[in-house]
Amino acid sequence: MDWQLELVMAVRAVLAAILGGIIGFERELHKHDAGIRTYAAVAVGSCVFGLVSMHSQGATAGDSRISAQIVSGIGFICAGVIMRGQGGRTIGLTTAATIWATASIGLTIAYGMYVLGVLTTIITFSLLAVHDTPYWKKMSKKDHLHKPGSSHHDHQDDD
């Protein structure tokens, strides 16, 4: 493997880490357990697995199998993040979904789909950031569902 190809792969891994870190930064701002390091690691790990699968045997149908296994593996990790809290309330859904989305960002960068990777980062970050805006709080049905005395306890959390 020549040094130019390795340099391109290294740049892709760094870009994936940066994009994952952007999502993690938003999570850290709101005091969530998974933050910059977690999201950067998910993105760079997915990217590197994609790069290795793509360049170990050349581009083959095996690339899609590796990508599918990454999605399955991340799904397994995400399942461990989702729990039942007090009162039967589901917690961790947003964290699980953003970890899954971050893995997809790493794969898009691995396969050279830079615009899609950046766009997915912007969309994911925006979905997380809009949660704390006054408009969202006013329009969100979850605000009144979580008030004391609510009889419905099976909600997606704000995590």
Any descriptors?
mainly alpha; 159 residues; single chain; 70% helix; 2 strands; elongated
Describe it for me?
The chain is mostly helical and 159 residues long. The chain has one domain. The chain has seven helices and two strands. It has a two-stranded antiparallel sheet with strand order 1-2. A hairpin with a 5-residue loop joins strand 1 and strand 2. The C terminus is likely disordered.
- Summarize the amount of helix as a percent range: over 70%
Q: Low-confidence segments, ≥5 residues, pLDDT <50?
A: 150-157
Distance between the termini: 44 Å
Going across the biggest sheet, name each strand in turn: 1-2
- Total number of domains: 1
Tell me the number of helical segments per DSSP (H or I, 4 or more residues long): 7
Q: What's the pLDDT, averaged over the residues?
A: 83
Rg on CA atoms, Å: 18 Å
State the secondary-structure class. Answer: mainly alpha
Summarize, please.
With 159 residues, this protein is an all-alpha fold.
Write the layout of secondary structure elements.
Blueprint: H1 3-29, H2 36-56, H3 62-81, E1 83-84, E2 90-91, H4 93-110, H5 114-129, H6 134-139, H7 142-145
Antiparallel strand pairs: 1-2
Helix pairs in contact: 1-2, 1-4, 1-5, 2-3, 2-4, 3-4, 4-5
